[in-house]
Design brief:
Chain lengths: 142, 496
């Protein structure tokens, strides 16, 4: 099944190839800049997923599936949630409440920084995996 | 150190199990992980109940943010017994589930099934344990979304429509709750339940509080399937995998009822103005009509699952009738029936699950003389059925006795009489099944194969465990009554 035969969308394909790395880079910027400015895990996850969705729209679902297999998505979903939970459990092991970032590092400010960073990364990974799975789910059924 | 972390562990353990199950993916291993996590949950709930009895209310600030600002877990004598109940029911049904799920769910989807189960469990436990109004909504969504998924696992294609119908109604309920919480926040500026309870009496706009109250009440009435708003329940219970039905029948509606109780009595307070309107004009007629009409409907059902689903709505009517009395005795009756009905209905659905496991259906008229082939399963159904009717020495008797006593204490003789009428209807619908199972000679063209054909031991043992537990609590009814009476005192006394 070829959704978009290669010959007909040469311009779109070339432009897409150019854009995708920047979309991903911007997603990472939104992810890691989230604790200073607007942004965070959810937004970054959606932007990151949009790179794959664009790829799927232009090159066809099969090609995207071979790049990013459903198994990898399933693993990413679980790993994101686990990262979030583990951050909370580490602070519990250090004697504070669940998700109390104060105790993660030597002083509370750095601890809060690291905690929110790890948690948001977990959110980002899960959100990107879920959004791409939703796209796969809707695009592969008729 | 572990003792102080117990409230968080209660939620984290099942929440942890879900992604690990998704990573592991092998169906046997997924089941083992789910069972181990669930048993740990039961242990934590048991310890929490002990701690609450010892030292009173336990409060736990998530993330170290103190109460009105941050999210707080709040365990007292109202929710601690229910935490244990939900965790235990889930554990028993999960132990029972292995063979039934193996037969009714595609083997490559088992891991998703158990992951959804764990998410559902953590959502339900979260709704019970949290002391934050918005957090209730979040956990409600976690449990509801995983419930829709669990129902859709049903082998029949109609499970999908049942699940979708529940999704639509459940989402309406959840959005009503969210709108209500939004109004509460607008009127008081707080989301913490204790803080809300203090601020509501001097809130600037009484109308906003009234609107919030109405939205939250209707939303929770949908989620707990109180009589006119029960439309989603029968189809969902009928078409879901039977293990899911057994799990949900004992937990989901009960947890929503708990949240309803919490909002009615603890957050809005017993002295609130529109209490009369809600209790006497809306809840009481809904409850009484509910248990009468739904019992009549249950009599005419030919599928056991459907019959028990309508009977569930009727039993929720008893609970709500107890609540609408709004007295110490009435609340005790309602609360004790939350616990007792959870045990009875789960056991009944488990025995129906055994029948479905062997016969592939639960069509009442074709169960002729089932006692010959599945004696233990039939005995389990009949014992639990007697408990549902309210025969002395069973838990059903304990709750009906307290409910009738409470109604008489308030002088509502009519209600006490109607409870008895509804019990007679329960005798009819359970009796019709028992009659077919015990006495009817086989006369259908394709009879049940002769000889013993009992369900596997792994299903019978958890089922009988639950039945013996409920018989024990039926004989020593004062144990649960003491717990319920303490919970009622706590609810009527407001937050302390």
């Amino acid at each position: 099944m070829k959704l978009y035969p290669r010959q007909r969308h040469r311009v779109l394909q070339v432009i897409t190839k150019l854009i995708i790395p920047f979309v991903m880079l911007f997603a990472l910027y939104v992810q890691f800049h989230g604790d200073f400015g607007p942004g965070g895990g959810f937004q970054a996850g959606v932007i990151f997923a949009s790179a794959f969705i664009l790829h799927g729209l232009i090159f066809g679902l099969q090609h995207t599936r071979s790049v990013l297999t459903p198994t990898m998505l399933r693993v990413s979903m679980a790993v994101g949630v686990l990262l979030y939970l583990l951050t909370g459990v580490v602070s519990m092991l250090r004697g504070a409440e669940f998700l109390n970032y104060d105790v993660l590092l030597h002083d509370p400010i750095h601890g809060q920084h690291l905690g929110i960073f790890a948690v948001e990364l977990g959110v980002g990974i899960t959100v990107y995996a879920v959004i791409v799975s939703l796209f796969y789910g809707f695009a592969s059924k008729r | 150190m572990i003792a102080t972390q117990l409230p968080a562990l209660q939620i984290i353990i099942p929440l942890f199990a879900a992604p690990i199950i998704v990573l592991v993916r092998r169906s046997e291993l997924a089941w083992i992980i789910a069972v181990v996590a669930n048993l740990m949950c039961v242990l934590v709930a048991w310890k929490l109940l002990g701690l609450v009895n010892e030292q009173g209310i336990i409060r736990y600030s998530l993330g170290g943010w103190a109460a009105p600002t941050g999210i707080e877990y709040y365990v007292d004598s109202v929710n601690a017994p229910l935490l244990l109940l939900v965790a235990a029911i889930s554990a028993i049904v999960l132990l029972y589930a292995y063979h039934s799920v193996k037969k009714s769910v595609d083997s490559n989807k088992h891991y998703l099934f158990y992951a959804a189960w764990m998410l559902c469990l953590s959502g339900l436990l979260g709704m019970l344990i949290t002391g934050d109004a918005f957090n209730v909504f979040v956990f409600l969504e976690i449990s509801s979304l995983s419930t829709y998924m669990l129902i859709a696992f049903g082998s029949d294609r109609r499970a999908l429509t049942a699940s979708f119908r529940y999704l639509v109604l459940g989402s309406i309920g959840a959005s009503f709750i969210l709108i209500g919480i939004g109004f509460l926040y607008a009127a008081t500026g707080s989301l913490n339940m204790l803080d809300l309870a203090q601020r509501i009496p001097d809130a600037s706009s009484e109308r906003a509080i009234l609107v919030a109250f109405s939205f939250i009440s209707i939303g929770l009435m949908i989620k707990s399937a109180i009589f006119p708003l029960h439309a989603w329940l029968a189809n969902a219970y009928h078409h879901a995998p039977i293990t899911v039905t057994a799990f949900l029948a004992g937990t989901a509606t009960k947890v929503s009822l708990y949240v309803f109780l919490r909002f009615l009595f603890s957050v809005f307070g017993t002295q609130y103005n529109f209490e009369y309107l809600l209790f006497n004009v809306i809840l009481l007629p809904a409850a009484v009509l509910g248990f009468l009409i739904m019992s009549v409907v249950a009599v005419f059902q030919t599928d056991l699952r459907r019959m028990l689903a309508y009977s569930s709505v009727a039993q929720i009517g008893y609970i709500v009738a107890g609540i609408s009395l709004a007295t110490q005795a009435g609340l005790t009756a309602g609360y004790v029936h939350i616990i007792n009905h959870a045990m009875i209905k789960t056991a009944l659905f488990m025995s129906v699950g055994c029948i479905i496991y062997r016969l592939g259906h639960a069509h009442r008229p074709s169960l002729d003389n089932l006692i010959q082939t599945m004696p233990l399963t039939c005995a389990a159904f009949i014992i639990s059925g007697l408990s549902l009717i309210g025969v002395p020495l069973t838990v059903g008797f304990v709750s009906k006795f307290t409910l009738i006593g409470a109604a008489m204490e308030k002088g509502w003789w009519m209600m006490a009489a109607l409870v008895l009428v509804s019990s007679v209807l329960a005798i009819i619908y359970i009796g019709r099944v028992a009659d077919v199972m015990l006495f009817r000679k086989q006369r259908l063209p394709n009879p049940i194969p002769q000889g013993r054909n009992e369900a596997p031991l792994s299903m019978l043992v958890p089922m009988y465990g639950l039945i013996f537990m409920s018989l024990y609590l039926g004989v020593y009814g004062s144990k649960t009554l003491a717990v319920a009476s303490e919970a009622a005192t706590q609810l009527l006394g407001g937050f302390r």
